[in-house]
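Session log. Operator J.P. requested a structure for one protein chain; no other inputs attached. Running the standard single-chain path with token output.
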Amino acid sequence: MLNVIQLLPDSIANQIAAGEVVQRPASVVKELLENSVDASAKTVQIIIREAGKTLIQIIDDGVGMSETDARMSFERHATSKIRSSDDLFRIRTMGFRGEALASIAAVAQVEMRTRRAADELGTLVRMEGSERKTQEAVSCLPGTNILVKNLFFNVPARRNFLKSNSVEMRHILDEFQRVALAHPEVAFSLYHNDSEVYNVQAGKLSRRIVDLFGKQYREQLASCEEETPYVKVRGYIGKPEFARKTRGEQFFFVNNRFIRHNYLHHAVVGAYEGTIPEGSHPFYVLFIDIDPSHIDINIHPTKTEIKFDDERSVYAIVMAAVRKAVGVYNLTPSLDFDADVNFLPLTSLPRRPAPEAGRSEKPDTEARPAAPAWTPEPAGFGAGFERRKPATNWQALFEGLPENETAPAPADLFGNPASSEPSADLESVTLGSRANKLTDPPVAPEEIGSILQIHNRYLLTQVRSGLMVIDQRGAWERILYDQYRTALTRRNGVSQQLLFPKTVTVMPVDYHLALELRDELTGLGFMYDEIGQNAFMIRGVPALAVGENEEDLFANLLAQLREDTGRLKLDRAESLARSLARRSAARNQAKLAEQELRALVEQLFSSSNSAYSPNGEPITTLLTLDKLAGLFRA
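Structure written below.
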């Protein structure tokens, strides 16, 4: 019988390794940038064409390589940074993966020019599909110049899986930001299709943050630093008033290497407890310096996840550092230690409602924020009435109509009549999860009695079998999601033209996102034109957003959408509908009149799924009479 196990050719082995290292153009950018930083470069230039599919060029002024090193760098498992297995646990450099260049050369056409400062001539190496085509001496500048052309030219299946240029460019920008933040002492410039995207000079970390994210960050940064014998924490946090509803601007670096760590993120958010609204995310760029022997970086192919040998200690130190920074910069109300709060007379204590379950008590100014001058809301929910003055004599609106039109069906956000039955359009685009198949309402709408609103968050109503509790925000989100999804399907969103167009500047990653989603955003009612680098002129917004800050609406929507598309595998319309629904629902937690409460509940039960929000979270719960009785049994 013939033997069946054989050694793979180097070209195939390199392609297999490339499947782990080179997932998309951004992977190439990350590996080459980290190699440039490890080469002690002071200036790094990145040139991209067609989102990296056609060309990725990295030029640095680092130490360069000799002729032999240039040839060896393309060999499998070749590296200058590891000599023994113990070195794996002492790694402090970035691009130490020996197979990086070999993997890139296996799936692309690579051309490298490199020269050491002491050498008169440099070396040119051309690789194509793991095969060395050329190696010769050339005249070139000190440092290294690498061109990666036609990525996945010899693996068509992999190339077909690449996303649009806008999506791939967003991933490149994410990797660029992480490397640039980790090394503020290095100057970086990035060009895409001959247009300058970033040009950041070497300097302090605070300047690098402002250069990358915008001048508005100058006033919101607070220094954070804590040092112990085990670990050192340093960096910047954002002040609570600048916390955003979206994630994406939170960065952890361990020994200057970007990581994702939900456990440590929880520590940071916990340090802000009582200072930021529920569901908000603070900005932070935090560096953790620790002895490499206390961490394991080899648990994830891209090295973005690590393990600490004592996670609890790191958690406590990070939380303490952030909490200290919050206190030092007077970001929280100071405590009066002179007052003896234990013996205050009861009559002097202000009466305040008990906090909701799971939420911490906050200062009175935070517990009851001032209501906005005007909050847009869907037609059919008391549209046109001011929230603080509930509508009266609303029946007069329908006087003069025929009897069969006296109580028209509520209209949706875009002026389309809302049917009492789920529309065919909505059924065709509902999510495929099990939650969306549970469309039967827990009770019939006609069973709904009087409705009581609790803390502008929950609705209570008596039904035949007990007491129903409705999450007001979840109800809004489900209704708005259905209406946005319909508008995206039909492309019939109503736009309100602005008398004075507004100019908004966004992050480069959001700029490309806005260009990619122009058709969808236009279908919702946004009208905008690009007027320069990362800048748009907004000429119109969806009719429901009239009265809101147009710049914040546009920028925050893009940020929310960027988070959703990165975290969830959703199509464009689905991500956009979810993002808009979540943002709009957050603004509609206000006191409602009796007519508005009933209209809200009626539209909820006529939606595509009254039981669950678009994210699969429950909207209603039923406390049966037996459950209620059980609360009072010993």
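Operator note: The chain has 18 helices and 22 strands.
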